[in-house]
């Protein structure tokens, strides 16, 4: 009984392991078609932005040069595989200003003013993971992280000591959308007010399914006239002369028949010609030999 219980326990454990292995294999995504994504981050001036912007309108403004700034990224990857692209730079950021005074060279005989800077990292990171749901739908998981510096404000003539430090502005997107191949999709946007100027930022995504490479069709065989086709079947014929000379007959036939079509060998002992070539040329040779080998 104990052995039976142990056997049953081992069998159940094996079944559970098999089910777990199958579930793991099914849960693991498989890569498939090649996908391409165009991501546009557009900066639209306040006076130019339409009341109800669309993805097509944003892209038309990009082509017409009406945007105050834009970034375009293209990523390609297989289904269920991560595609990532990152651009960045080290930029100087104004952090403070020292007001001079109490010496020569500055206002009222004081020291000149100086500006303090710090080096910061700014840029854009774009990640995508997608799968083809159907011929008309691609499910895209998109993440965007963008950072930039606010513009440095010019000095105020009325108050030369007034100072506004620069700051880092971040823009993050983490979304999953269903995109139709080839059609631009407007994802999200924001409005940024900087002093009296205001700009809007919009993100447009366009997904594509790359076409499978077409197989090159085999070119039809070129027809040739007057030459032996590579696939033509060659035969061998033996002609024994009665009245003529085999070497002399070989010279005559060599000057008439195509050189690449017929090969001729002479057996002087038996006054015989051995010829190899395609049946058509050998039939011409037979007719010539029968005519030229007649008794005078």
What's this model, at a glance?
With 296 residues, the chain is of the alpha+beta class. Helices cover 21% and strands 42% of the residues.
Explain this structure.
This protein is of the alpha+beta class. 21% of the residues lie in helices and 42% in strands. The protein is built from four helices and eleven strands; from the N terminus they run αβαββββββββαββα. It has helices at 2-27, 55-64, 246-256, 279-292, and strands at 34-45, 69-78, 83-98, 114-134, 137-149, 168-179, 185-194, 197-209, 235-240, 262-267, 272-277. Strands 2-1-8-7 form a four-stranded antiparallel beta sheet, with helices on one face. A four-stranded antiparallel beta sheet has the order 3-4-5-6, with no helix packed on it. A three-stranded antiparallel beta sheet has the order 9-11-10, covered by helices on one side. A hairpin with a 4-residue loop joins strand 10 and strand 11. The longest helix is centred in the N-terminal third of the chain and has 26 residues, at 2-27. 12% of the residues are buried. The model is unreliable at 1-26 and 223-231 (pLDDT under 50).
Major β-sheet, in short? 4 strands, antiparallel
Number of β-strand runs: 11
Q: Compute the gyration radius: what is it? A: 43 Å
Helix/sheet category: alpha+beta
Strand content: 35-45%
Can you tell me the overall shape? rod-shaped
Strand order within the widest sheet? Answer: 2-1-8-7
What is the helical fraction, as a range of percent? 10-25%
The SSE order reads HEHEEEEEEEEHEEH
| Whole-number mean pLDDT | 77
Number of helices: 4
Distance between the termini: 114 Å
Low-confidence stretches: 1-26, 223-231
